[in-house]
């Protein structure tokens, strides 16, 4: 008699299906999508070696992150940690209210795991991941395409997207380049489509003073931020993305701030697990984050490979120290391109306010409230800070409240439980 669950089977034994295992509904799109991928020159696969790490060659010398097994291992742990942090949300993959996406783009897809998970979740959608380096994956769902391309080039995808996603893209672009990327996102989204971005900080913090001020980790963030500023591609993306997304014309902007623990020190079981995975990311990722930036843009002069390795070895030991109750801040922004109706209304208001501005001065001026409606599209009004909640959101029950209490955020005050 065969034991239930045994893997030893007779020829016509079927594997019993767990009735609680939910099948994904929907019809897969099995078009020959892979014919759209193109063969890549082997140099793109090989990359270029520098200081013992492999880097992409598509934009040589332009992106700080390595493209090798160690880096992909770090990204994978970071991705899993993010999923754990949002595991109590209705959907851990994203927060935008996207229900039935058809065309999705993941910019800087890295190992492609988010794109693959999205393809599994939405079998009738086409999910594209794009990166400078070919993702090291052997298999992907038929409705997922991972492409090698530079998003700073003009986009050539024929279809528009209903959802564009980015994660951990800090330091990938200069301020002007970010502007270009967000504009391309805006232009290539269907009206009403969503953009979502998740970013982590470089600064390591602790709330209980358990991280000594003279530790390597306490100065880690400043060190990397200074080098990235020198490189022209600042790593403070976490702090700048909201303003740039708003400036690109997106509305309905939502934000969630996380305290992302490093290490399993948190009492909350979700944060404990997220922290363990995040610690794995930091231990395998730190050398890759520091090597390129410090050997090129380190202070007071570029560091040697050995100097970086010594710094990272000390930092890694500090990460492993259970007495350090450390975390970084992370932020998720999601926002919407106006619908066609909103765009039409906005252009009507803009043209009306332009006309009234051209009237002779003795005519009744357009009220400030009315004329400022048109300015919410591309350039926020100079009278109000660009991070202020736009008036049309103030009454929105959907607006996420910040959950950070350390005083660095002005967006809320309740303790974070993600
Ligand atoms: C730190 S990784 C994050 C990967 C993935 N999103 C994740 O969260 O695990 C950033 C990725 O952005 C890619 N990238 C940087 N500049 C890019 C560009 N101009 N075009 C496309 N991808 C780019 C890098 O090659 C890298 O794989």
Automatic annotation (TrEMBL):
Coiled coil residues, start to end: none
Stretch list, region Disordered: 344-418
A molecular function (GO) term: methyltransferase activity
Composition bias, Polar residues: 350-361, 404-418
InterPro entries linked: SAM-dependent_MTases_sf (IPR029063)
Pfam families in UniProt: Methyltransf_23
Biased composition (Low complexity): 371-380
PANTHER family: ABC TRANSMEMBRANE TYPE-1 DOMAIN-CONTAINING PROTEIN-RELATED (PTHR43591:SF10), METHYLTRANSFERASE (PTHR43591)
Annotated protein name in UniProt: S-adenosyl-L-methionine-dependent methyltransferase
Lineage: Eukaryota, Fungi, Dikarya, Ascomycota, Pezizomycotina
């Amino acid at each position: 008699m065969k034991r239930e669950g045994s893997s030893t089977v007779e020829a016509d034994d079927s594997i019993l299906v767990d009735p609680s295992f939910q099948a994904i509904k929907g019809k897969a799109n099995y078009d020959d999508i892979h014919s759209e991928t193109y063969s890549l020159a082997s140099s793109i696969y090989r990359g270029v070696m520098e200081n013992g790490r492999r880097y992409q060659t598509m934009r040589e010398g332009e992106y700080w992150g390595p493209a090798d097994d160690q880096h992909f291992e770090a990204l994978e742990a970071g991705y899993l940690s993010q999923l754990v942090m949002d595991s109590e949300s209705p959907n851990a993959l994203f927060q935008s209210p996207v229900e039935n996406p058809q065309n999705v783009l993941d910019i800087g897809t890295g190992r492609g795991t988010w794109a693959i998970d999205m393809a599994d979740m939405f079998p009738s959608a086409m999910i594209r991941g794009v990166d400078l380096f070919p993702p090291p994956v052997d298999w992907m769902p038929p409705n997922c395409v991972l492409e090698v391309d530079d998003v700073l080039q003009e986009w050539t995808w024929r279809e528009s997207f209903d959802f564009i996603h980015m994660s951990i893209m800090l330091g990938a672009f200069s301020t002007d380049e970010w502007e270009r990327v967000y504009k391309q996102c805006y232009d290539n989204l269907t009206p009403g489509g969503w953009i979502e971005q998740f970013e982590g900080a470089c600064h390591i913090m602790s709330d209980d003073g358990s991280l000594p001020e003279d530790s390597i980790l306490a100065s880690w963030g400043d060190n990397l931020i200074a080098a990235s500023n020198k490189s022209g591609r600042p790593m403070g993306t976490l702090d700048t993305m909201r303003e740039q997304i708003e400036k690109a014309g997106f509305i309905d902007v939502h934000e969630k701030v996380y305290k992302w623990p490093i290490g399993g020190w948190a009492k909350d079981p979700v944060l404990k697990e997220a922290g363990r995975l995040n610690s794995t990311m930091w231990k395998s990722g730190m050398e890759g984050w520091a090597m390129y930036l410090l050997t090129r843009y380190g202070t007071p002069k570029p560091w040697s490979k050995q100097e970086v390795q010594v710094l990272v070895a000390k930092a890694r030991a500090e990460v492993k120290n259970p007495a350090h109750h450390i975390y970084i801040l992370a932020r998720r922004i999601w926002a919407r391109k106006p619908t066609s109706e909103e765009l039409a209304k906005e252009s009507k208001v803009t043209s009306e306010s332009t006309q009234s501005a051209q009237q002779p001065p003795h005519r009744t001026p357009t009220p400030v409230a009315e004329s400022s409606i048109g300015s919410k599209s591309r350039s926020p009004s100079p009278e109000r800070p660009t991070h202020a909640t736009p008036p049309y959101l103030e009454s929105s029950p959907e607006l996420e409240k910040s959950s950070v209490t350390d005083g660095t955020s002005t967006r809320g005050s309740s303790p974070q439980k993600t």
